[in-house]
Design goal:
This protein is mainly alpha-helical. 66% of the residues lie in helices and 4% in strands. The protein has one domain. The longest helix is centred in the middle third of the chain and has 21 residues, at 81-101.
């Protein structure tokens, strides 16, 4: 079935499983190690999986921010849920400000090519920017999306979130071709 440019099929559902190898360990770490209430986390992930799938019409994953998640898990419970939410909110506010003002484009232009390539590789923007040819994703769009996702997500109890190339590669490898896979995977969060 095709609705608003997204396909909802067995293939898209299979593609939705593509990034669980990244998602589940970090979610388990947040809940078990940091004692974060899973309700807010799952609601935030579910909400943004639906929104991202409907808006981008591309299999863009929503994942925990790995650097913050790793610090939380490695802390052995020292970092509180409030500290986690504050880090996500602050990160989101910075991305949102850079995206809305266009500063993210200026930073990209002013940073040397090897640094940008390293960041692109590390953050997965290279794969996101390629997207699917008729649905391009821009640096500014990703910055604004990260900002909105984290400012709103953390206020409802979510953890810091991002898009990841590994997750997108997993979605595509498992069969996803549209945002239907992202929207479909929101079912697991309910």
């Amino acid at each position: 079935m095709r609705i608003a440019g997204n396909e909802y099929s067995l293939r898209e559902t299979a593609g939705a499983f593509g990034d669980l190898g990244t998602l589940i360990p970090f979610l388990a770490g947040y809940v078990i190690v940091a004692q974060v209430d899973p309700t807010g986390v799952l609601v935030a992930f579910g909400l943004f999986k639906i929104v991202t799938g409907l808006v981008s019409r591309t299999p863009v994953p929503i994942q925990p921010m790995k650097a913050i998640g790793t610090a939380v898990i490695a802390s052995g419970g020292v970092l509180t849920p409030a500290a986690i939410w504050a880090s996500g909110f602050f990160t989101g506010a910075v991305w949102l400000a850079m995206g809305l003002t266009g500063a993210v484009g200026w930073v990209a232009k002013m940073t040397s090519r090897p640094v940008i390539q390293g960041l692109v590789l590390g953050l997965g923007l290279g794969f996101l920017l390629q997207g699917i040819s008729d649905r391009p994703i821009t640096v500014r769009g990703v910055a604004i999306d990260h900002g909105v996702m984290n400012v709103i997500g953390t206020t409802i109890g979510g953890v810091p979130m991002c898009h990841g190339a590994g997750g997108m590669a997993g979605h595509v490898r498992f069969g996803a071709r549209t945002g239907g896979s992202s929207s479909s995977s929101a079912r697991w969060c309910s």
